[in-house]
Every structure is written in C-alpha cells, then in structure tokens.
C-alpha cells in the first residue's frame, strides 16, 4: 500500500506536471497551505522538519496538520511528509508519533557508503509501515549555514552514485542538487541541466525532488519539469509572505489587542503565495 505523497508524486510523473511541498510549523501555516490546495482542487504536500517538530511538539503539530487536512482540504489530495529527517529516530517519531505517510532521510552530508547504509535502514523500517522514503544525494546548500561560496562541482549530485543509492536502498524518491540552494541565495548561475538529464536517464522511475525552490521562477521551473522534476520544495518564500503581512499589520504601531487580526491576514498571505506556486508548478506541464 502506498501513502498519499507517493500517489501524488507518481501521478505527477505519469502526467508530466509538478507539485509543491510546503513547510508548516503551526496552525496558520497549515491552514494557509491547505486552503490554497482546496481552492485550486490540486494535490499538494505539507511537510514538517525536525526543528519544527521540536518547536511545536510531535503530537501537537501532528494533530494540527491532520485535523486541517481532514477538515479543510475539500477535494484536494494532501500528502503529509517529514522534511529533512536527519536520524533514524526522527523517522520513528514521524511514523509512530505523528503518522506521516512519507519521510525524507537526509544523509547527504555523509559519504556515499554511510548515506546508503542510513537510507537503507530507514527504507526497511518505513516500508514495513507503508511509508515511502525520499533520499538525498549531493548537497543543497543552506544560506544561513553555508555562506555564499559553494564549490558546486563538489556539491551537486553525481548521477551514477544516485543510481547506486536508489538501487541499493530501495528509496522511493530522490532530492537532487543541480545548483539549487535553500533560502534566497546565490544559486549556481545556470542549473546543471545536463546533470539532471543524466540522473533522470539512470533512474527513470524515481520521482525527482527540487529543494530550495523558493526563488525558482516560471522559466527555470519549466526547464526542470521537462527534465523530470515532479516536486518543488518551498519554505522561505511562504515564511516571507507571512512575516511581511504580519509586519504590515503591526508596524509602525501595534495598537490592537486581538492577535487573530494580524495572524488572519498573514495566513491569507500564505494562501495567496501557495496558490501562485501550485499554479506555476502545474502549468509547467510537459507534453509526451
Ligand atoms: O529545508 C529546510 C527548511 O526550509 C528549513 O528548515 O525548519 O529546520 O528551519 P528548518
Ligand atoms: P527554500 O529555502 O528555497 O524555501 O527551500 C525549502 C526546502 O527545500 C525545504 O525542504
Ligand atoms: Zn530542503
């Protein structure tokens, strides 16, 4: 049996379009994201990182997201995913305490042998629970952690190693590095399209995920989808939409006593931004 995330990614692969995976850590982000999918009647993935689990509490964030999915998604299909799980324990919490239907194990900072060993252990465990697994190979740099100078040749995914990782671990999806970076960041001037084509050629049946997609516009998204990307991860851009709307309500003077006034406006800003992204990813459809 497959979970929703896997169904969403496989359908997108078969039909040649892409979806978005959006990060949440609270009620307002969860509603903001899921309301966008509902309005558009389009599939989307909602995801939580270990640091957001730490912030909100596993049971709390799990219950909030599940409840918003159950009550507010209408006809939209919504997958619930662990983003950037770092350890086997992160995965166990996601599966057993939260009930996510898909997990990422990001062992991309390890060497290939260790990445394979960690990912394989996670896949064996997750598949027993009908949970699918996204692996990562090649680094997708993080603005705040890695600064602005990246040795892209070292950081990007090696296609042959990607095939080995997928074949030896049985992972269901792969996060790739072709010059993409987390945050609003100086990405590689031109993404390494040839590298993406080679990855797709060597693992044609594995859905490919693009992390760090907040600053990817229409043209680059289309090129990426044409070469096999089926899911774009967006966090920074919706955080900014939320914060800008919040600041618009509270600056220069915070002269109200009902926080729902500001939070409601910020939540709507997320919906607006997610609508924009879902449509851009869907419209990058390729003809077969
Ligand atoms: O890809 C990572 C997220 O955009 C940020 O992760 O929740 O640990 O800040 P975080
Ligand atoms: P951004 O920082 O570009 O939003 O990337 C988000 C991401 O990759 C989450 O996994
Ligand atoms: Zn990411």
Description:
The structure is a single chain. This protein is α/β, with parallel strands linked by helices. It has a single domain (3-283), classed as TIM Barrel, CATH 3.20.20. It is built from 13 helices and eight strands. The model has no long low-confidence stretch (mean pLDDT 95). The protein binds glyceraldehyde-3-phosphate (G3H), 1,3-dihydroxyacetonephosphate and zinc ion. 1,3-dihydroxyacetonephosphate is lined by residues 23, 83-84, 182-183, 211-214, 233-237. Residues 23, 83-84, 182-183, 211-214, 233-237 line the site of 1,3-dihydroxyacetonephosphate.
- CATH class membership: Alpha Beta
In the residues, how many domains can be counted?
Answer: 1
Low-confidence regions: none
| Basic shape | globular
State the distance separating the first and last CA atoms. 28 Å
Tell me the series of helices and strands, N- to C-terminal.
Answer: HEHEHHEHEHEHHHEHEHEHH
The major β-sheet equals:
8 strands, parallel, barrel
What's the CATH architecture name?
Alpha-Beta Barrel
The helix content, as a percent range, equals 40-55%
Structural class: alpha/beta
Average pLDDT, all residues:
95
Q: Count of helical segments?
A: 13
Number of strands: 8
Q: What's the CATH topology name? A: TIM Barrel
Sequence-ordered SSE layout with sheet pairings:
Elements: H1 4-15, E1 19-23, H2 27-40, E2 44-48, H3 50-56, H4 58-72, E3 78-85, H5 88-98, E4 102-105, H6 112-128, E5 132-137, H7 143-146, H8 152-155, H9 159-169, E6 173-176, H10 193-202, E7 208-210, H11 218-226, E8 229-234, H12 236-250, H13 259-283
Parallel strand pairs: 1-2, 1-8, 2-3, 3-4, 4-5, 5-6, 6-7, 7-8
The structure holds glyceraldehyde-3-phosphate, 1,3-dihydroxyacetonephosphate and zinc ion.
Zinc ion is lined by residues 84, 140, 182, 211, 233.
């Amino acid at each position: 049996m497959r979970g929703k995330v896997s169904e969403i990614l496989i359908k997108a692969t078969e039909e040649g379009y892409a979806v978005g995976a959006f990060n949440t850590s609270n009620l307002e982000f969860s509603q903001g994201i899921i309301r966008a999918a509902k309005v558009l009647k389009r599939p989307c993935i909602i995801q939580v990182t270990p640091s957001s689990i730490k912030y909100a509490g596993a049971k709390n964030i799990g219950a909030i997201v599940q409840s918003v999915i159950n009550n507010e998604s209408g006809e939209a299909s919504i997958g619930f995913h662990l983003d950037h799980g770092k350890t086997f324990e992160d995965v166990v919490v996601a599966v057993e305490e939260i009930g996510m239907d898909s997990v990422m194990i990001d062992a991309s900072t390890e060497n290939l042998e260790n990445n394979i060993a960690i990912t394989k252990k996670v896949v064996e465990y997750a598949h027993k629970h009908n949970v699918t697994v996204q692996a990562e190979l090649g680094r997708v740099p993080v603005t705040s952690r890695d600064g602005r100078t990246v040795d892209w040749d070292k950081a990007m995914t090696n296609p042959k190693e990607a095939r080995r990782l997928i074949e030896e671990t049985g992972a269901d999806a792969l996060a790739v590095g072709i010059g993409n970076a987390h945050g609003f960041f100086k990405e590689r001037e031109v993404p390494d399209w040839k590298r993406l084509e080679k990855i797709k050629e060597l693992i044609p049946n594995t859905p490919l995920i693009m992390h760090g997609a907040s600053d990817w516009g229409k043209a680059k998204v289309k090129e990426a989808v044409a070469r096999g990307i089926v899911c774009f991860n967006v966090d920074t851009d919706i955080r900014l939409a939320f914060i800008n709307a919040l600041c618009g309500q509270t600056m220069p003077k915070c002269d109200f006593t009902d926080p729902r006034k500001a939070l409601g406006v910020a939540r709507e800003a997320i919906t607006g931004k997610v609508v924009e992204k879902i449509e851009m990813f869907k419209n990058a459809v390729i003809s077969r």
